[in-house]
Inverse folding.
C-alpha cells in the first residue's frame, strides 16, 4: 500500500477524527478548569482601608479573600500612628481573588530631626531654617543686646537645646532675640479676620509675642481673630519689640467676618489744613470719607482755605470709612 493510499484509507481517517475530537475535548476541558481555578469573570471590589489599624485591615482583607503586604511607613502628624495611610490598589478597584494589597502605614513613633544651630542667625534666617526642618516657632522673648534681631538662645519649654539633639518634627522652638541697645519700636500688625496660625505668624514676623488668647467659640471651629489689643484700626499702634499682642477669637464658620471687617475698615485721618474746598472734597473722596458741615468764616471769597477740621488731624489716628468730616474755611489773607 502506498503512502497516498494509506492516508486515504478508512482506518487512518477514523483515527485522525478520533485524535482531533480528543484534542478539542482536552482543550475545552483545560479552559474550563482554568476558568474555575482563576474564577474568570469574578472580581472583588477592594475595600477602603484608610484609618484602620494593620490588624483591622488584615481581618477585612481576609474576609475579602485578599492578601496583605506592608510596603512602606510614613510620618504624618495629622493621622493616628499605626493606621493605614495609603493602599495599592486603591479602594473601589476590581481585582481577582488572592490579589496582594500593598499598604503604607503611619509610623507610630514621630519622625525626628537634628536640632539646627540658630544662634547668631537673624530672626528671618532662623525662621526659614526652623520651617525647613519641620519645626515650629514657639515663644519669642527679647533682651538688650548689641546683636539687634539676632538669635541669642534656642530653647524648648524654657530649657536650652543643643544643636544636633534629636527632637520630634513639629516641636516648638522658643527663641531669645537681641533687642539692640536702643529703643526698638515696631508697628502692631492688623490681625482681625486672620486665622490663628496667620495671626501668630504675623505677630512673630513683627518681632512681637502672642499674649492672652480668648476663644468665644469652640477653639476647634476655625477660629479667626475677632478683636486684638492693641487695636491698629483705631490708631496706628507701636510696641517695643518682644511685647505681647492679646487676641480674641470667634468661629470663622459661625460669625460673619466680612461684615465685621467692613464695619471696622478705617483710613488715616487726612490733613485738610490749607486746602481749597475743591481740594478738600477730592481728598475726602479719595479716602472714602464723607464731607460733613462746611463753615465759611469771615468774608466769603474765591480764595478760601481750610483752617480747622473735625475729627482733628492726627498723624497716627484712623477713622472709620464713610465718617463725616466737618470743615471750617476762611480767606487765605486771614490766616
Amino acid at each position: 500500500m502506498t503512502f497516498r493510499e494509506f492516508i486515504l484509507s478508512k482506518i487512518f481517517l477514523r483515527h485522525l477524527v478520533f485524535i482531533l475530537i480528543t484534542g478539542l475535548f482536552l482543550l475545552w476541558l483545560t479552559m474550563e478548569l482554568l476558568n474555575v481555578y482563576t474564577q474568570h469573570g469574578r472580581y472583588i471590589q477592594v475595600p477602603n482601608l484608610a484609618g484602620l489599624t494593620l490588624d483591622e485591615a488584615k481581618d477585612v482583607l481576609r474576609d475579602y479573600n485578599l492578601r496583605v503586604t506592608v510596603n512602606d511607613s510614613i510620618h504624618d502628624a495629622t493621622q493616628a500612628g499605626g493606621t493605614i495611610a495609603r493602599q495599592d490598589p486603591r479602594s473601589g478597584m476590581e481585582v481577582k481573588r488572592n490579589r496582594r494589597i500593598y499598604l503604607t502605614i503611619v509610623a507610630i513613633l514621630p519622625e525626628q530631626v537634628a536640632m539646627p544651630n540658630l544662634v547668631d542667625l537673624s530672626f528671618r534666617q532662623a525662621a526659614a531654617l526652623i520651617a525647613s526642618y519641620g519645626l515650629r516657632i514657639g515663644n519669642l522673648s527679647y533682651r538688650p543686646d548689641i546683636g539687634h534681631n539676632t538669635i541669642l538662645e534656642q530653647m524648648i519649654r524654657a530649657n536650652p537645646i543643643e544643636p544636633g539633639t534629636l527632637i520630634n518634627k513639629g516641636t516648638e522652638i522658643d527663641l531669645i532675640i537681641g533687642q539692640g541697645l536702643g529703643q526698638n519700636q515696631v508697628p502692631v500688625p492688623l490681625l482681625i479676620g486672620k486665622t490663628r496660625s496667620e495671626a501668630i505668624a504675623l505677630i512673630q514676623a513683627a518681632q512681637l509675642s502672642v499674649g492672652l488668647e480668648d476663644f468665644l467659640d469652640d477653639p476647634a471651629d476655625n477660629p479667626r481673630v475677632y478683636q486684638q489689643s492693641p487695636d491698629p484700626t483705631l490708631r496706628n499702634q507701636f510696641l517695643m519689640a518682644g511685647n505681647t499682642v492679646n487676641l480674641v477669637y470667634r468661629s470663622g464658620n459661625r460669625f460673619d467676618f466680612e461684615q465685621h471687617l467692613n464695619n471696622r475698615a478705617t483710613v488715616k485721618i487726612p490733613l485738610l489744613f490749607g486746602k481749597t474746598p475743591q481740594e478738600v472734597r477730592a481728598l475726602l473722596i479719595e479716602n472714602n470719607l464723607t464731607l460733613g458741615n462746611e463753615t465759611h468764616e469771615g468774608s466769603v471769597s474765591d480764595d478760601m482755605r481750610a483752617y480747622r477740621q473735625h475729627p482733628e488731624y492726627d498723624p497716627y489716628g484712623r477713622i472709620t470709612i464713610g465718617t463725616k468730616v466737618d470743615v471750617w474755611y476762611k480767606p487765605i489773607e486771614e490766616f
User: Anything to note?
Assistant: DSSP finds seven helices and 21 strands in the chain. The first strand starts at residue 44 and ends at 45. Helices lie at 3-7, 10-38, 54-63, 123-132, 196-205, 257-264, 277-286. The chain has a mean pLDDT of 87.
